[in-house]
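Ticket #4471: structure output looks truncated?

Reporter: J.K.
Steps to reproduce: submitted the chain below (764 residues) through the standard prediction queue, then opened the result file.
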Amino acid sequence: MKKLLCICICLLTLAGSVLQYGCSGAHRGGTEMCVKFLEYVNEGAYGAAFDLISDSLKNKTGEATQGAAAMISYQEFVEKYNSIFDAVGVDGISYEITSSAEGSVTAAVGYVLTYHTEKAGDLTNEYTINARYENKKWGVQWSPALIFPQLQWGDKLLLGVNYPKRGEIFDAQGELLVKNIDPVAIFCVPSSIKSPQTFMEQVLAISELQPRGSLYQDWYGIVQNASTSKNSSVVLTRLYPDQLDEQLENRILAVEGLGIDRSGSLTSTRFRAYPFGRSASHVLGFASVIWKEDLEKFEEEGNELYDGDSWLGYSGLEQQYEEILRGTKGSYAYIQGADGTNRMTLYNIPAVDGEDLHLTLDMRLQKRVEKVVETVVYDPSVSGTVIMMEPRTGAVQAMYSFPDYDAESFSRGTVGSVEWARMEKDPQTPMLNRAIQGLYAPGSTFKTLTALASLETGTLTKDDEFPSTEYIKLGAERGSSGDLKDSWYVTRGEWAWTGVEKVNRTGNSNRHTPMNMTSSIIDSDNIFFSWAAMKMGWSKFKSYLSYVGIGETVPFDIITDSKSQIKKEDSDETWDLLAMSGYGQGEILVTPLQMATYIAGIHNDGQAMIPYIVDSTWQAKGTSYIKTSQHEVGVWKTICSKKNADDLELMMQGVCALPEEKGGTAKYLGVRRTYRIAGKTGTAEIGTDKSKELAWFIGFRSCYKDTGEDVKEEEQRLVLVMLEIDMKNQPDEYTLMKFKIARELLKDDNLTKPGLTESSITSG
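Returned output as attached by the reporter:
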């Protein structure tokens, strides 16, 4: 609470001296002048305050005051107060007068002043302001000590940032996937630079030191300012440790005034490193020193969370968990003497480090998945995704989208925003996480949902057969590849009024009978599921699909705007579109993660769990490591009753049964030992020329083959494989790729075992 000196008119005689207190007459006293100066500063009326300063202290030459001269100009006075108060974040000032004394020539007022700041709280110090009577008037004897008692002529108030340690990312086994490393700081010692011009020429000649992505003129300015700085040392740039080889080190040390610091003591900035290289790049994403365009945007918005040395997450978990990972910057302020030394630290607010992410992803399994794909998918034109998930919990153990990208190249600045934009336009879309961002026709994997829809709506039972009255409408015709295919000629039967002409079967050899839901799941029969969808009609079909989340974005730790769809908004609800939708074509689009979640729900008694990859977040506080959040396993959608889930799982076991067991469309999966696999295949054509297709397989360990007992919790596993294949290139061979990949990831081998070879996969 500000207390002003009570002004009165009185004369006191003390020790032979006349002390005249301020009065309201024609003559203003020295103590009153001092108090008035404080009032003006408190009000921000710096011009009025400057007028009260003694003329002998005012620089009226119009030139900048040189060195540590005890003079100040009006412009310098206003700028000093504004810059210091803005820098410290002064929101208000309060003071209390503690003493006053005035003689015929000098006067003094003692007071306690507090700066109320947002950054450092209250900064309170004791001050004395003096006034002197000269040239027939009183003038305040201003000095920098009236701002801070320790501030002297020629001193500066400098601010610094305490950067937080960005949170790191660990896998399910505690393996460090994304870590911070101390950079190598290249610094100069200005006092040891004999010729700033020579120094600049030598430094600028070492191109490796110029920060990547920076403009030459910016780098020139940094070096120039550093060479003439009053600081004891100035960090010019920072390098990753492996960027400093012996040759570069010798070139740096050959420049007089340059030094190398590997201890991290000269900078609180840390670099981001990805020890596993490209592995899981789409999941982890990358962080980089903030790109110029983003910094400019934040500055325009008044966002003070970032500056030119801040790191920002740009993709994956690094972007999604930016607020948690980045921490909170701290700051400090100190008085720097004219000789460059720290005269006094005014305040030091430590940074709050970011929180760490602990994932469900197991890097041993992730590397295994990537190795299997690398060995099986030898054609770079084939792209796709593989997901490995615990079906009972929704925990993602591995997620691979290919082609991928090198996350650390962005963090190191070897590529930046321009390259990012180019890669986003690349036809191979290496920046796209196909598992969660890509929207695809699910093909025959969707027949599982059509089956559940018909069961849940009471349209069909699992034993209902395709009507015998329509069997006569099944005819044989040659497909474009010469194979014999069955077709249901809808126009010749009781459904002719729908306008649907015919529906092709997927094949006609060794079909299971009767033609009911079980055999049609096993054989992936388009005819049965187009008929099932048409029996439901659009109303029931859409109602069920909407209920289970088609039309929504599946919740996940990395949020996307990839919302699935039943059909396009402007499309008519035709019978033809309904028939195609029943077997996963038409206009239905889903993400691979969403289909994995539905198939997992079949194994989980009809409960599709919320998929997740971030298990928990942790933060170091002193010597303690504290869990700050824990994922709660929960249900996303109930897709069916337990009975219907159990029935469908048995059907899906038939899909994956071996050839000698009269298996279905996945009989070549070939998992022959411990587990009985339940799964579903799918094929979806892409484009009007049908030259490309999506090859799907989704399956899980259903039970132990010998006993039929449930698989132990620690052995639960679902695998999704989706490949985008150019069908102009050996389509039969390429179609088997999905089985080779899934076989390796579902069979009972130790999936972290090294030494994978192509022969070990193909012999499966």
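Triage note (M.O.): checked the attachment and the full token line is present. The radius of gyration is 37 Å.
Status: closed, working as intended.
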